[in-house]
Every structure is written in C-alpha cells, then in structure tokens.
Design goal:
Length: 194
Amino acid sequence: MVGWAIWITGLPGSGKSTIAHIVARRLLKQHIHTQLLSVEMLRNVLTPRPKYSGKERRVVYGALVFVANLLTQNNVNVLIDATGNRRSYRDAARMSIRSFAEVYLKCPLELCMRREMRRKRKFGAPSRIYLKAKKGVSKTVPGLGVPYEEPLSPEVTLDTSKLGPNECAERIVNVIRTKFGAGRQARAANASVL
C-alpha cells in the first residue's frame, strides 16, 4: 500500500494554504492522517535567503517532489501546498508519484493581490509580494514578474472567487475519498488495530 499526494496549486493569494490546512484538519477528524508539505517550509531549509531565481525554484521544487514521493512510498498521504508556477514542476510530481492528483485554485490576479495585501496568516510565505513586484523590488512573483502556467488537466478546478475555503476543502476531501478510497483505508486501518 502506498500513500497519495494532492498538489494544491494556484497564484499566491488564491487560498492554497488556508484550504490545505482545512483539508488536513477535516481528514484528521476522519482518521485519515496526512503530512502537509509546504514549499515555504522546505524553502526555509534549502534556501534560507531565497532569490526565487529559475535555477533556485527548480532545486526547491525538485526537492519538494522528491520528499513527497518518498513519503507516499512509505504509506504517508501528502497535501502539497505550493504555487509551482511552472507546469513542469507539477508534471514531475505526476510522473513520479503513483497516486497523485492536482487541484487548481483558479482566482483572478486582481483578487489574489487584494487578498495577499490583507492576509493575516501567512503560513510562512513572504509578505506583500505583489506590492514589491509593482514597486519593482521583486521581479519573480508568479503572475506578475514570472508566468504562472495554469494546469492543463487538473483533477479538480475550484474557482476561489466564487467558492469559500470550507466549500473548496469539502470538495477536495470528496475527491480524495473517491479517487484514493481514503475512507476505506482509514476504516481498514482502524479495524486492524482492534
């Protein structure tokens, strides 16, 4: 038995971290244990003073995919919270992780910018990135300085300009149950303990 991995992608400010944390809590209540793997958490270890260059991003996302794959091979379910602005990063995960799904949080750039400006919980992400990009301080912000390549065929697309975080989380949990039979695995694990 192997674990599964869900990559929640979208522009900064689309709701990835908020939704990923809600999904993790809901799954835990259902006795489905997951490891939340944030690119910011990994970046703090690999590149404590990030430059967000293309080369650096390839290294960080390569490590992210490697860790996620390793965890799933050891029967750990993984929620990946990462923009992954290039399709190639997410495609690498799809090719190497046996049980994988991509969730695209679609949200207009202008709304993402407004959300990012008033965000209280940052979940380790740098603050005011869009403002820095507009002022020319940062030239590597996905959606402004560097492209964000939308997924071509994600398993789930959720429009976070129309759906709230709880509704998005519930839809993701339903996909996990349907695609990976997560509820059956949890019940089987609990039964084997008895």
